[in-house]
Amino acid sequence: MKKIFKIGCLGFIALIVLIIVIGIFAKDKDSSNDTTSKSNTTANSVETKGTSKEDAKKLAKKGEELQVGDVVFKVNKVTTTKEIKDGNYLSYSPSADGSIFLVVNVTVKNAGKKMITTDSSYFQLLKDEVTYNPSTLITTSGDYFLYEGINPGLAQTGNVVFEIPEDMTGFLLNVQTGFWGTEQGQIELK
C-alpha cells in the first residue's frame, strides 16, 4: 500500500510539473504570436501613416496655424541674437563659443474645453537627426514662455529661445500638447 501511495504522489507531482511546463511553452508561443501580430500591425500603420490627411496637417510653415489636438500653434517670427536683455537689467549671452540664440516668437491658442498649461519645454528644434532643447538661461517672465495656464478660447504669445551653432539654418520647430508629448506637430522655420 505504501508503494502505491508513493507512486501516486510521484505521479501527481509529475503531472503538476508537466502542466507547468506546457503552460510555459504555450505562453512563449502566444508571446511570439503577439509580437509577430504587433510588428505586422506596426508595419501596416507605418505604411499608411504617410498617406492620411491627419498626418499631412501635422506640418506647417512659419505664419500658418497648426492644430495639434486641442492646441493651435503659430510661429510669428524667427530672429537670431548674441545677447538677450530683460527689463531688470540682466543680460544673457550664449554659453558656448560659436553659438547664437535663435528666438522663436510663437502664439499658442487653447481650442479645447479645459485650461491647458504650456512652457518652453514643450518646444524643440529639429535639424536632421539632431534635437535642440530650449535654453534654460532665460529665467525671466514677460516675453518668454514659462509654465503658465491658458484658458479655453484664449491665446498666449511668447518667445522660446534656443542656443544653436552660429552658421546653422533649416530647422523644424517640434511642438507638443503636453509634458509627455502625446500629440506632436512640426513647423518649418524658413
Automatic annotation (TrEMBL):
Q: Where is this region: Disordered?
A: 29-54
InterPro entries (alphabetical): DUF4352, Immunoprotect_excell_Ig-like
Q: Does this entry carry the keyword Membrane?
A: yes
| Membrane-spanning ranges | 7-26
| Keywords, sorted A to Z | Membrane, Signal, Transmembrane, Transmembrane helix
**Composition bias, kind Low complexity: at what positions?**
33-45
Q: RNA-binding as a keyword? A: no
The segment(s) forming the DUF4352 domain are 61-182
Protein name listed in UniProt: DUF4352 domain-containing protein
